[in-house]
Specification:
mainly alpha; about 250 residues; Outer Surface Protein A, domain 3; 2 domains; two-stranded antiparallel ribbon; 5 strands; 10 helices; 3-stranded antiparallel sheet
């Protein structure tokens, strides 16, 4: 039994070593493990094909960073050759690890950090939408009628206000992704509207109100107003209409 366990562990170690070596194209380290039916050149062709697919997928995933890094392609090459693709990694999760790798191994400027952060937030939004698909689909259905139901604000006490469940807050530290009229640093909201991932810069008062709506949702206008004693009713209704138009809130 001891011999069996030892050989089993030895085999597992061999598999792990080969997988990690092939994942970063270190063909020479598996030369003694290759079956006699295959040559190292054949193994290299297989590995190069997989690495090229991974490289292209990563470039597509982080296309946004082209505006921030002149050497983006070189960075992707370094990453692919250094960091093995983890078991069960998806294109999205590999892209996220690549972005984290840049932040940890390079010294990105504030503007480059904003581009990295923006892409990370977009990835996280996609993860949230997948993880909470039912709530996401339901909100999008409600949002499709937001223009019609917005007319009932202030008149229909049973009208409920829903906060988009697929949204996250972040902060941009530079002007790189902001317009000239918006000072940095500033807080931004990432959210899904239809099939798009959108980013919105909101006034501080609106940020506070929407943060409270995240806690209350769903709620009526009066319930939201009661939780915001320093807010004017008309101002809150205006925020509702503007936010509904963007896809941040919906009615039901």
């Amino acid at each position: 039994m001891t011999v069996s366990v030892s050989k089993s562990q030895e085999y597992r170690d061999q598999i792990v070593r080969c997988a990690q070596s092939l994942a970063i194209a270190k063909i020479e380290t598996v030369s003694h493990d290759v079956d006699d039916r295959f040559t190292l050149d054949q193994v290299k062709m297989f590995v190069d094909g997989n690495l090229d697919k991974r490289y292209q997928k990563l470039l597509d995933q982080v296309e946004l960073l082209n505006d921030a890094f002149d050497d983006l392609e070189d960075l992707v090459v370094d990453y692919v050759k250094t960091i093995p693709l983890a078991a069960y990694d998806t294109g999205c999760s590999d892209g996220t690890r690549f972005l984290q790798w840049i932040a940890e191994t390079r010294r990105p400027s504030l503007s480059q950090t904003d581009f990295i952060n923006c892409q990370l937030c977009r990835n996280e939004i996609e993860d949230i939408a997948r993880a909470h698909r039912t709530a996401h689909v339901r909100f999008q259905e409600l949002w499709s009628t937001a223009d019609t139901l917005a007319g009932q604000l202030g008149e229909n006490p049973s009208l409920s206000i829903f906060m988009n469940p697929v949204c996250i807050w972040s902060t941009f530290q530079s002007q790189a992704l902001l317009d000239d009229d918006t000072p940095a640093p500033t807080r931004v909201l990432f959210f899904v509207a239809g099939s798009d991932i959108r980013t919105s810069v909101l006034e501080v008062s609106a940020q506070s109100l929407l943060s409270s709506l995240e806690r209350l949702t769903p709620c009526s206008l009066d319930e939201w107003l009661a939780d915001s004693p320093h807010t004017d009713r008309d101002d809150l209704m205006e925020l509702c209409r503007d936010s509904a138009e963007m896809g941040i809130i919906a009615f039901g």
